[in-house]
Amino acid sequence: SCHDLRELDVSANKINSKTAIQQLITFIKASSGLTRLNLAATGLPGDSVRDIIMAIYGNVYIKVLSMFSSL
């Protein structure tokens, strides 16, 4: 199941629909297995970044986070 997912790499995938962003936020908040998250080069809208950061902050299991691309 998705709750067993350890690493999520959505880098270089454009995420700009409000539904997709809300689903990502919900997943991050609920995931107790996720330890690595890569959101680099996703083109997240600025108004959604705060909500995503708050979801990440609330997830004590995420140990490795990447939000920047060297491209």
Low-confidence spans:
none
For the secondary structure, the number of strands is 3
The rounded Rg comes to 11 Å
H/E order of the elements? EHEHE
N-end to C-end Cα span? 32 Å
Strand order of the largest sheet: 1-2-3
Percentage beta strand: 5-15%
- Biggest pleated sheet: 3 strands, parallel
Mean pLDDT: 92
**Computed structural class:** alpha/beta
In DSSP terms (H or I, runs of 4 or more residues), the helix count works out at 2
Shape: globular
The percent of residues in helical segments reads 25-40%
Task: Describe the protein in words.
The longest helix has 13 residues. The protein contains 2 helices and 3 strands, in the order βαβαβ. The mean pLDDT is 92. Helix 1 runs parallel beside helix 2. The protein has 71 residues and is α/β, with parallel strands linked by helices. Helix content is 35%, strand content 13%. The chain is globular. A 3-stranded parallel beta sheet has the order 1-2-3, with no helix packed on it.
Top keywords for this entry?
single chain, 71 residues, alpha/beta, three-stranded parallel β-sheet, 2 helices, 13% strand, globular
Quick synopsis:
The protein is an alpha/beta fold and 71 residues long.
Topology:
Elements: E1 7-9, H1 18-30, E2 36-38, H2 46-57, E3 64-66
Parallel strand pairs: 1-2, 2-3
Helix pairs in contact: 1-2
